């Protein structure tokens, strides 16, 4: 039963108030893309044991999607941030590396 | 014999007797008793039978760890099996039945298993029942079912109520012994929001029983004073009868409050499940005494030494008149001293340690108690109760020795910290060599969302055996949990010093197999030392495998008593160290909690949300036969007296096609999409072009997901240049709205589009049939609803019969049809006025089945029937609704993948059975030959099938390989009973193919 | 509980008559939005999670791009028209949503009893330090979406979808039934 802070409401929301949305920061490939790119977009996921960037929706709250960096093994949450963030935020990467020196974005 | 003493009993009120029944026999206890103490006071030593051998079983413990004394409590709608007598508080009129025996507790036929014990060793079930296979179903399973199970499942609906409660705290403290109380006091002074829960009805834990002195006061006095101080703190909540049941991710914890178990006549929720979010948790859960493994240690009258002491001190109940204590540690001497002090005869203390010394041992010696050092119990003797113990040197095989007569044995194998709650969420353990126990490893706590440990441990749960160390650890736990120094001064503790324990796992050390086969580890599941040793010999090296093979620790007590002893025996058999063997996993709940508590309020009327349309009450009043559509309840049909469903549906369809029908379509999803980029967004959502739709017009559209699969369909109305109204399926409203917001928020956040789910704002009614327009004209409209002014697939705002409405000329039935939306609050009145005005045309409300049949007659697809998440629009012959012009829409790229863009897919066609009957739903279309599994090859399946009242025969739609190219071909279908049915492939449109009826 | 009729309330629950509710989605930081809203309600733009009220009018923060305007039911259509007119140049969505929802008023004998009653059904932290009077919390009430706010220490209003109003009403009756006093808050 996770606890994630919605960056819009500032509410620390119970997992039962949220809906999960899978991996974040995917790049969409549409018509004209190669089979390989499209396959990667549609099916290939990091499935990380470790820090995972993921999508959540504050379904029973403000209804907004947000993104979270969470370790799938320890459940440590390194931060939540707006869904309108195209790249992995630098401050979150710094926060992860401060705690895990050997970690890098894959 | 066990009996009540004239003196003693700190928890009972001798002035108030309480009548209760055990197995129909009337008994009397005292206010403050547990059922266990009351039974012992009545000399009811035998309280149950074991699971496998149906051995006689007596009370072993005094708390939650009790493995044996499980009873059925109450009767009928308040019957509950498998209740521990040790945690059941006595109340007037309590009724208990012992379990797991037949025909009676005293004479159990199942005890025959006892004599067959050598045929039922570890792994017996696995080894015996595997072959021959057919025997399982017809021979083994019925026999096992007959003999398996403990208590019987209740038959009646539970008469009690239950609830949940969400609490958010800074600090949850689990366990109200002196460590928990001290922790609450210190955290309370820091101003933290503290919740302290205690599973029993009493505060203070073992300290008062052990006669500890705190700050110059008795333990009881210190507890009273501490509670008074805590009571003044507004930020501290104290809760007895509330067990910390589980600790989960991110500080989530469950506590199980037994609100009225002790007072069932009170009209209140019986159990309350606390769903707690705690920033930090302190477990002050104490420790559980371990049994000793000697032959016959399961005979009634043999119990934990601490339990024997608890019954004396707390309830003034003696387990016997002549007591033997067997202990490998100093704490056992406390029980001997308490028994002596209570006036009982203490025949001997059996201590396998050859030369132990210490305060308690000296005290026992001075009290005149015989102490036998270096000695073991070779075997306990007796049948339904213990009659004596044969003793021998610990370092022997137990073949020779004297017998000491006794009627109760207290055994102590040392103490195991209650590490369950620490471990639930991943806290790791370390092996404490000195005390021979696993205790929490502070370096490897369970981690919370901040990456920090969130569970801390205090008191005996942390492996401390003295009150002084426990209090100190409580302060340290608070400081660590809150990150704030604790300044309070601890009370001065007066208590004896304890010497070292000797890790004795079986006694005597060289006991032969005959003895080891009578040394019980798991009392409830009948697992003995010999079983674990057998498992080790057969190659079970993993403790988790051994557990499952022998069923050690798998009973309802989850191995609270057996765990460490079992591990030690396994480690010994494997010639490994105990920490190398490790423990099994501790899983919540700590002790079983009621199903009612888990369900909470969710039963009966509030089992789950039931969505009702604004017209729901009318449907009820008019005898609607409802069906669930998601959480909605929609009328399936409206049977009249004497009509079955089929007759009602037939009548409704004939009336609608013949004259006038009415459908409550309020559940249809309605979503507003508005903004300068709304058209662009709609073009991405739908496979067809929506941006070209003119205001005032409607268009049918298909929505796919990125996988290319069809996910929803419906009619879109363009309200104005910037605004679309999207109609979704009934089940689609919420998830399609979520889907839209997902794309707008996460991918196309540069699009200027707002959406809103307005489904519930409108009541929507379909007025259907050749007389539909006449009805609306009769009601009066301020807007021209003629075919010319409002043609098919147009919409308009209108005032109809005084109702502000939006009218859509759309049809899902193939008839002239107006779908009319009015504000939800006026839906019922609007419906009633239609019904009233429509009487002259025999206006007939129809339900979902009529809707389904009429759409199938027209060959319209239904999401969820013709689609199943693997179907693309092209499969359904809907290519006309897929734009070739658009560069992109959701699903377009996927539909170009090789498997999608493939002529070999199953495609939608109509099917008519050659005999005119109704094909079975989901029937497969068979192809010649068999597959690798010997099953028929298939080439398609039925997606919708109905009896058509209009055509007076069965009609169906099916997805068939190359279907549209095979018109007129006869195919074979499975009939679901092993036979086959023949049907002819035909057009999906069975009725009015030119659409003449709807377009008028 | 299968039979609600056996319960006696210690917290009273009543469904309020139709409440005017306008959903406004727009860039809330725009001055024109604040002006338009103020013209209707007389109230300023609320801070995140806040709900403000003044007489028959109110305004609640629903998300960073959405507010809910409370007004007399009969006035809704006119106010929506006003908003559309005043915000014509700004991308926005104004909708009369009054009929989509039901509003319950929950009155308890004590402030603690009110919070206890709600905390049985909602995973929200109802401690006064975490949820004070004048803050709207969107969450769930058992298995249905809901928004709740305390109008005063002993009174709460709860918004739920119309289709589940019977369910929500029943839930509150179960939660507020005598014998179920928790005594936590
Ligand atoms: Zn939020």
Describe the secondary structure blueprint for this structure:
The complex is a heterotrimer of chains A (106), B (1000) and C (185).
Chain A: E1 3-5, E2 12-14, E3 19-23, H1 35-43, E4 51-57, E5 65-71, E6 77-82, H2 90-99
Antiparallel strand pairs in A: 1-2, 3-4, 4-5, 5-6
Chain B: E1 3-4, E2 13-22, E3 25-31, H1 35-41, E4 46-49, E5 56-58, E6 70-73, E7 80-84, E8 94-98, H2 112-115, H3 124-129, H4 133-147, E9 162-174, H5 178-189, E10 194-197, E11 213-214, E12 217-218, H6 219-231, E13 236-239, E14 242-247, E15 252-258, E16 271-283, E17 287-289, E18 302-304, H7 305-315, E19 317-318, E20 322-327, H8 331-341, E21 345-351, H9 359-366, E22 371-373, E23 375-382, E24 386-393, E25 403-405, E26 408-412, E27 415-417, H10 420-424, E28 429-432, E29 437-440, E30 455-457, H11 467-482, E31 493-494, H12 513-516, E32 520-522, E33 527-528, H13 529-537, H14 543-550, H15 563-574, H16 578-581, H17 595-599, H18 616-621, E34 625-629, E35 632-637, H19 645-658, E36 661-664, E37 669-674, H20 678-685, E38 698-704, E39 710-720, E40 723-728, H21 733-746, E41 754-757, E42 762-768, H22 772-779, E43 795-800, E44 803-808, E45 817-823, H23 827-837, E46 844-845, H24 848-857, H25 892-895, E47 906-913, E48 924-930, E49 936-948, E50 953-961, E51 970-974, E52 980-986
Parallel strand pairs in B: 2-8, 9-10, 9-16, 10-13, 16-30, 18-26, 20-21, 20-26, 21-22, 36-46
Antiparallel strand pairs in B: 1-19, 2-3, 4-5, 6-7, 6-8, 11-12, 11-31, 14-15, 15-16, 17-27, 23-24, 24-25, 28-29, 32-33, 34-35, 36-42, 37-40, 37-41, 38-39, 39-40, 42-45, 43-44, 44-45, 47-50, 47-52, 48-49, 49-50, 51-52
Helix pairs in contact in B: 5-6, 5-11, 7-8, 8-9, 13-15, 19-24
Chain C: E1 12-15, E2 20-25, H1 31-41, E3 51-54, E4 57-63, E5 66-71, H2 76-86, E6 93-96, E7 101-107, H3 111-119, E8 137-141, E9 144-152, E10 155-161, H4 165-175
Antiparallel strand pairs in C: 1-7, 2-5, 2-6, 3-4, 4-5, 7-10, 8-9, 9-10
Helix pairs in contact in C: 1-2
The complex binds zinc ion.
């Amino acid at each position: 039963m996770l606890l994630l802070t919605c960056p819009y409401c500032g509410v620390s929301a119970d997992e039962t108030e949220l809906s999960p949305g899978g991996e974040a920061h995917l790049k969409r490939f549409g018509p004209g893309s190669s089979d390989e790119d499209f396959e990667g977009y549609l099916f290939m996921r990091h499935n990380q044991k470790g820090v995972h960037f993921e999508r959540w929706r504050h379904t029973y709250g403000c209804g907004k999607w947000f993104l979270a960096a969470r370790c799938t093994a320890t459940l440590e949450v390194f931060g939540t941030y707006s869904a309108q963030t195209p790249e992995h935020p630098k401050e979150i990467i710094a926060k992860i590396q401060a705690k895990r020196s050997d970690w890098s974005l894959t | 014999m066990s009996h009540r003493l004239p003196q003693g009993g700190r928890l009972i009120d001798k002035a108030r007797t309480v009548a209760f029944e055990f197995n129909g026999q009337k008994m009397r206890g005292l206010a403050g008793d547990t059922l266990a103490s009351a039974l012992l006071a009545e000399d009811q030593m035998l309280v149950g039978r074991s699971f496998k051998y149906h051995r006689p079983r007596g009370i072993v413990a005094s708390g939650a760890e009790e493995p044996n004394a499980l009873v059925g409590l109450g009767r009928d709608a308040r019957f509950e099996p498998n209740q521990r007598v040790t945690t059941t508080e006595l109340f007037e009129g309590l009724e208990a039945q012992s379990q797991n025996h037949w025909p009676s507790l005293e004479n159990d036929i199942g005890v025959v298993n006892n004599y067959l014990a050598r045929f039922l060793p570890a792994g017996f079930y696995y080894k015996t029942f595997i072959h021959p296979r057919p025997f399982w179903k017809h021979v083994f399973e019925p026999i096992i079912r007959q003999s398996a199970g403990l208590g019987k499942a209740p038959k009646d609906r539970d008469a009690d109520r239950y609830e949940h409660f969400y609490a958010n705290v800074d600090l949850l403290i689990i366990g109200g012994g002196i460590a928990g109380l001290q922790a609450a006091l210190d955290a309370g002074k820091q101003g933290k929001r503290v919740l302290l829960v205690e599973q029993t009805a009493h505060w203070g834990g073992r300290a008062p029983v052990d006669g500890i002195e705190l700050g110059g006061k008795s333990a009881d006095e210190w507890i009273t004073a501490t509670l008074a101080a805590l009571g003044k703190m507004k930020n501290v909540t104290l809760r007895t009868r509330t067990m910390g049941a589980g600790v989960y991710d991110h500080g989530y914890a469950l506590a199980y409050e037994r609100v009225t178990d002790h007072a069932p006549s009170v009209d209140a929720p019986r159990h309350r499940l606390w769903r707690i979010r705690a920033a930090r948790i302190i477990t002050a859960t104490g420790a559980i005494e371990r049994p000793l493994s000697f032959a016959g240690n399961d005979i009634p009258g043999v119990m934990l030494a601490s339990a024997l002491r608890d019954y004396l001190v707390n309830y003034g109940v003696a387990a016997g008149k002549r007591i033997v204590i067997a202990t490998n540690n100093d704490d056992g001497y406390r029980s001997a001293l308490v028994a002596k002090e209570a006036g009982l005869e203490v025949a001997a203390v059996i201590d396998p340690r050859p030369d132990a010394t210490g305060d308690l041992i000296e005290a026992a010696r001075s009290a005149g108690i015989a102490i036998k050092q270096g000695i073991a119990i070779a075997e306990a003797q007796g049948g339904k109760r213990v009659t004596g113990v044969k003793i021998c040197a610990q370092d022997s095989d137990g073949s020779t020795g004297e017998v000491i007569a006794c009627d109760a044995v207290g055994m102590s194998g040392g103490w195991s910290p209650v590490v369950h709650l620490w471990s639930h969420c991943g806290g790791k353990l370390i092996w404490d060599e000195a005390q021979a126990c696993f205790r929490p490893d502070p370096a490897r706590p369970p981690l919370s969302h901040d990456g920090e440990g969130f569970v801390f441990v205090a008191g005996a749960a942390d492996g401390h055996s003295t009150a002084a160390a426990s209090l100190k650890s409580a302060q340290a736990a608070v400081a660590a949990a809150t990150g704030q120094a604790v300044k309070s001064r601890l009370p001065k503790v007066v208590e004896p010093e304890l010497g070292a324990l000797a890790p004795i796992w079986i006694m005597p050390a060289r006991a032969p197999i005959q003895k080891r086969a009578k040394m019980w580890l798991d009392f409830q599941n009948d697992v003995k030392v010999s079983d674990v040793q057998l498992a080790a010999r057969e190659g079970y090296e993993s403790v988790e495998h051994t557990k499952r093979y022998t069923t050690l620790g798998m009973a309802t007590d989850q191995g609270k008593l057996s765990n460490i002893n079992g591990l030690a025996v396994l480690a010994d058999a494997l010639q490994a160290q105990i920490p190398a063997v490790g423990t099994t996993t501790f899983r919540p709940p700590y002790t079983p909690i009621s199903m009612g508590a888990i369900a909470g309020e969710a039963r009966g009327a509030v089992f789950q949300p039931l969505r009702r349309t604004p017209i729901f009450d009318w449907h009820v009043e008019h005898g609607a036969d409802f069906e669930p559509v998601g959480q909605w309840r929609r009328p399936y049909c409206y049977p009249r007296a004497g009509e079955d469903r089929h007759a009602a549906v037939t009548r409704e369809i004939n009336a609608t096609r013949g004259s006038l029908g009415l459908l409550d379509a309020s559940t249809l999803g309605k979503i507003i999409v508005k903004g300068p980029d709304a058209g662009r967004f709609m073009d991405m959502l739908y496979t067809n072009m929506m941006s070209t739709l003119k205001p005032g017009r409607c268009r049918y559209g298909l929505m796919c997901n990125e996988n290319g699969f069809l996910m929803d369909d419906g009619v879109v109305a363009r309200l104005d240049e910037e605004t679309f109204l999207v109609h979704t399926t009934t089940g689609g409203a919420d998830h399609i709205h979520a889907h839209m917001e997902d794309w707008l928020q996460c991918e196309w956040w540069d699009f200027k589009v707002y959406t809103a789910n307005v489904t519930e704002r409108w009541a929507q009614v379909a007025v259907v049939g050749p007389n539909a327009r006449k009805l609306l004209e009769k009601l009066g409209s301020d807007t021209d609803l003629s075919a010319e002014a409002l043609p098919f697939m147009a919409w308009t705002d209108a005032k109809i019969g005084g109702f502000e409405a939006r009218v859509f000329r759309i049809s899902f039935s193939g008839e002239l049809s107006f779908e009319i939306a009015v504000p939800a609050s006026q839906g019922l009145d609007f419906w009633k006025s239609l019904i009233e005005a429509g009487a002259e045309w025999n206006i007939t409300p129809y339900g979902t089945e009529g809707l389904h049949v009429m759409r199938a007659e027209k060959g319209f697809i239904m999401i969820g029937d013709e689609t199943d998440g693997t179907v693309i629009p092209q499969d359904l012959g809907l290519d006309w609704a897929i734009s070739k012009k658009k560069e992109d829409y959701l699903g377009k790229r996927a539909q170009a993948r090789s498997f999608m863009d493939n002529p070999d897919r199953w495609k939608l066609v109509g099917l008519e059975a050659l005999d005119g009957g109704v094909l079975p739903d989901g029937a497969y279309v068979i192809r010649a030959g068999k597959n690798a599994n010997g099953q028929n090859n298939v080439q398609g399946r039925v997606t919708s099938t109905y009896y058509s009242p209009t055509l007076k025969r069965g009609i169906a739609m099916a997805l068939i390989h190359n279907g549209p190219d095979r018109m007129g071909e006869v195919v074979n279908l499975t009939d679901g009973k092993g036979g086959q049915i023949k049907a002819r492939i035909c057009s999906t449109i069975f009725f009015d193919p030119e659409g003449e009826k709807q377009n008028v | 509980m299968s039979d609600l009729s056996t319960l006696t309330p210690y917290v009273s629950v009543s469904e309020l008559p139709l409440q005017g509710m306008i959903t406004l989605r727009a860039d809330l930081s725009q001055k024109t939005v604040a002006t338009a809203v103020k013209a209707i309600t007389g109230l300023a733009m609320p801070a995140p999670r806040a709900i403000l009220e003044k007489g028959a009018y109110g305004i609640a923060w629903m998300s960073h791009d959405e507010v809910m305007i409370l007004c007399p039911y009969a006035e809704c259509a006119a106010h929506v028209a006003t908003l559309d007119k005043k915000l014509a140049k700004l991308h926005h969505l104004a909708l009369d949503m009054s009929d989509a929802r039901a509003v319950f008023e929950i009155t308890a004998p004590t402030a603690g009893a009110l919070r206890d009653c709600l905390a049985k059904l909602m995973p929200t932290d109802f401690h006064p330090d975490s949820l004070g009077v004048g803050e709207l919390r969107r969450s769930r009430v058992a298995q249905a979406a809901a928004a709740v706010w305390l109008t005063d220490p002993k009174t709460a209003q709860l918004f739920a979808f119309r289709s589940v109003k019977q369910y929500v009403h029943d839930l509150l009756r179960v939660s507020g039934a005598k014998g179920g006093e928790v005594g936590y808050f």
